[in-house]
Design goal:
Layout (H helix, E strand, L loop, with lengths): L1 E4 L14 H9 L3 E5 L10 H7 L2 E3 L2 H7 L2 E3 L17 E4 L7 H10 L2 E4 L14 H18 L21 E5 L3 H12 L3 E6 L2 H10 L5 E4 L2 H8 L4 E4 L14 H6 L5 E4 L20 E4 L2 E4 L9 H22 L1 H7 L1 H4 L2 E4 L2 E2 L2 H7 L6 H6 L1
Parallel strand pairs: 1-2, 1-4, 2-3, 4-5, 5-6, 7-8, 7-10, 8-9, 10-11, 11-13
Antiparallel strand pairs: 6-14, 12-13, 14-15
Helix pairs in contact: 1-2, 5-6, 5-10, 10-11
Length: 372
Amino acid sequence: MRIGVPTEVKQAEYRVAITPAGVRELALAGHEVLVQSGAGEGSALSDDDYRAAGADIVEDAATVWAAADLLLKVKEPVEREFTHLRGDLTVFTYLHLAAAPALTRALLDAGTTAVAYETVVGREGGLPLLQPMSEVAGRMAPQVGAHELERPRGGRGVLMGGIGGVLPAHVVVIGSGTAGRNAAWVASGMGANVTILDLDIAKLRYVDTVHSGRITTLASNRLTLEEQVTTADLVIGAVLVPGARAPQVLTEEMVASMPRGSVLVDISIDQGGCAATSRVTTHAEPTYVKHGVVHYCVGNMPGAVPRTSTYGLTNATLPYVMRLAGQGVRRAARRDQGFAQGINAIDGLLTNAGVAEAHGLAHTPLPEALDG
């Protein structure tokens, strides 16, 4: 199979979809890998690194897209890339289609097979291709929040760990999945007073056991959430419904009740955000203020640490890429039901129910689409 790896074009996106080590594995398996010149520079990976691993270096993105049977990306295609979509192409990337109606329509119109990293389910459950980036975003969130809490950045002027005789920051983490757990762990390590909320008591028990009670765990409900955010210096939103739009668990009234100069980091923004006041921002302009609260809602947080992110992503995706390249999408889907759940669209049919509901579009069950 011919596999294409274009340079990412989303603003301040420095990751690349595969490392030279991944290229070597694909080349040894007999596949041809085309990498756009400069695709790895943001992750400190040179064209020579890729060439030595067995890749063909191609100068322009259009050639990579046109030649590829399977296209590997990190972030979803943006509008200027829609013209490259076609019916005999499979795109394997983070898609987050529930928050992207225009992209959803473009994929369906082109008949492109769209496989989303974030909806692939592992053999033992979980979301193995989302997990590494959730780890990165979760660990970044307290770091980012601590910076935004500084007064010159518009924050309250609170030091995360406090000092002797002075209270540390109160950090509230909403959601105890991979991102939430990592956020709580790092915030606790910075010396903050951390509270994590979730609907899943089993997840909260896990956090409590691992951290020996150093992180406060609370069952999430409207009243408890209202009480917690009113005293929070930093709120980290890490709510996820796989493949669907994130629920808005933070109402505008809750945000307005937060202390002036407090910070909201909405990791869920890729899926539409978990706060009513959230809107997507960029690394170039990462924050805005609403109701006196500093909002950080960057849609590709891990892109700020691309070398770590690129290696973590390839570690997770490579086994699936090898399978997809070796078997083709239909055979791979029939052999692995978890991988099959990554297919969001095929042959102009929308196969992800959450995306269909988000946009009011017709849903075709995947078995029906595969047999079509």
